[in-house]
Specification:
GlycoTrans_28_N, 363 residues, 2 domains, 45% helix, globular, cell membrane, 6-stranded parallel sheet, binds uridine-diphosphate-N-acetylglucosamine, Rossmann fold, 7-stranded parallel sheet
Length: 363
């Protein structure tokens, strides 16, 4: 058995980056001598998050195609050609044994070039609605690991394997106790903790809601751990008190999940998969601004099974207060939601994806 080399490519948002890191960690456990290289987009989140996770990354000069005719868009063909050339160089030099693409525009040129060189490629699609890059790559790759049923609408049926979404090992294993988590955040064990998650970039409407509801949370005697997002941090950092902790980004999600009694979250695919493993009562407020409204579909699938509460942005003004207060006062509802959301978990997703990659290795 040689020392395998793997390229992982994906990014733009945490939703594409963390699955790639989870798969790399799993492959590393299986092949401790393997070499890894990540390929992302210059200036995007992955350029910071991947090195923090201990992996090397190269950035391509690429961005998504916008619908409007802008200067950025006019650069797109040049960026694409430049990225394809750089991707070809990377593949030629690194000589990967397999390439894994987790979605986002940077993975397009890289997987296109790798597949062209007959290197086995695997895609991982997190959402119930396939991303444009993955759709374009589907015919070039060997396998496509998905988390939802009905993905044959987008991909060749013989390539699809339902594995669930990768979740970072620290979150699957969850070695942090509630007590440790409360101490980590300096929170009071006597008062309930609400965790607010706006997805990897933060969510404007969720932040507006939380600020509005701070008096309610105070009257209910609850503490809030509020991830508002890097873009919004300056606007909300002044809301910080002993009971309201405001973060741009939470680097220790295991502590955040362990501290929480109830959770309000966007319904990005990664968040949904993690929350299923965490198994706590969740109110999803899906982003209505993503392709095909896929976050609402993710959340609806759970709400239909009484595995979470779904509140659409447009009903927040009318219903949030009642729904939240009822949930907080009903241990029974909290327990039911926790039990039901756990049934949606795929704790072995990462392992099963890594095993699919393994089957394609030639040496
Ligand atoms: C606005 C947007 O385009 N959202 C998309 C993006 O979501 P987004 O990038 O928000 O990703 P997900 O909800 O899938 O996952 C968020 C990830 O970021 C991590 N995290 C989040 C906040 C934080 O403070 N710390 C932290 O570590 C979470 O633990 C999780 O692993 O990709 C998802 C997966 O393709 C899609 O379903 C979403 O619709």
């Amino acid at each position: 058995m040689g020392n395998y080399k793997f390229i992982l490519s994906g990014g733009g948002t945490g939703g594409h980056i963390y699955p790639a890191i989870a798969i790399a960690n799993e492959l590393k456990d299986m092949y401790p001598d393997a070499e890894f290289l990540f390929v992302g987009a210059k200036d995007r989140m992955e350029m910071e998050k991947v090195p923090q996770a201990g992996y090397k990354i190269e950035g391509l000069w690429i961005s998504g195609l916008q619908r409007k005719l802008t200067f950025k868009n006019m650069l797109f063909p040049i960026k694409l050609v430049s990225s394809l050339l750089k991707a070809r160089g990377i593949v030629k030099k690194f000589k990967p044994d397999a390439v894994i693409g987790t979605g986002g525009f940077a993975s397009g040129p890289l997987l296109r070039m790798a597949a062209g060189k007959d290197i086995p490629c695997v895609l991982q699609e997190q959402n119930s609605y396939a991303g444009v890059t993955n759709k374009l790559l589907a015919n070039k790759v060997k396998k496509i690991c998905v988390a939802y049923d009905g993905m044959d609408r987008f991909f060749p049926v013989d390539k699809i394997i339902k594995t669930g979404n990768p979740v970072r090992k620290d979150l699957v294993e969850m070695n942090v106790s509630k007590q440790e988590a409360l101490e980590f955040f300096g929170l009071n064990a006597e008062k309930p903790v609400l965790l607010v998650l706006g997805g990897s970039l933060g969510a404007r409407r969720v932040n507006v809601l939380i600020k509005e509801q701070l008096p309610l949370f105070k009257s209910l005697g609850i503490q809030v751990v509020w991830q508002c997002g890097k873009l919004y941090y300056d606007e909300y950092k002044n809301c910080q008190t002993d009971d309201v902790l405001v973060f741009d980004f939470l680097n220790k999600m295991d502590y955040a999940y362990a501290a929480a009694d109830v959770i309000i979250s966007r319904a990005g695919a990664g968040s949904v998969s993690e929350l299923s493993i965490v198994g706590k009562p969740v109110i999803f407020i899906p982003s209505p601004n993503v392709a095909e409204d896929h976050q609402t579909k993710n959340a609806l699938a759970y709400a239909d099974k009484n595995a979470a509460i779904l509140l659409r942005e447009k009903e927040l003004d009318l219903n949030f207060k009642t729904v939240f207060t009822d949930l907080l006062s009903s241990k029974e509802q909290q327990l039911k939601l926790s039990e039901n959301i756990k049934k949606q978990a795929f704790p072995n997703a990462t392992k099963n994806i890594a095993l699919e990659v393994e089957k394609l290795l030639k040496k």
